[in-house]
Sequence to fold (170 residues):
Amino acid sequence: MSQTVEPQLIAFLDVVTLEDKATLRGGTLITDLDTKPYEFRCTGPVQPSSLQRILYGATLDDYVYVDLLGGPLLRAAKEKPMLVMVQNELLLRVRPTVGYPVVLLERIKKATASSRNGGLLVRVHPSFSDELDAVHATLDPLLEKRDLLEPFERLRVALEEAHRRGIGKK
Fold:
């Protein structure tokens, strides 16, 4: 009797600012370890009102990025990743709301030939620092064969296209 092997999946999560710099859209691209797409999801456009800006004050970004965009996208995904990669530090704050590591990838400004992770700095949420070794065990082999920043560009272009087509607008 053959057993079905679940694919190992990773997610790329991002938020783009559109139009008049007031409209945001979140998106996630879930891929296999070769970064081939399995699932794409995006939110509808979000435009915080002036009243929300007043009421939320300094907590508005957390509310928008975590509660309205990042968290709902990851919870709605049919495919469950083994880890989520982000490039925006605000999205790292999604980690306490999901059951898998969220990793912030940042390009090191002065990468050297000996730089670990192909010139990328890898960080996890401060409350989950014990996940860093497992994250490196997963990411280090991937970084030898793939540029893990490239799928973010695909995701951004897909979000812009979804917005252009009016996908998710009420």
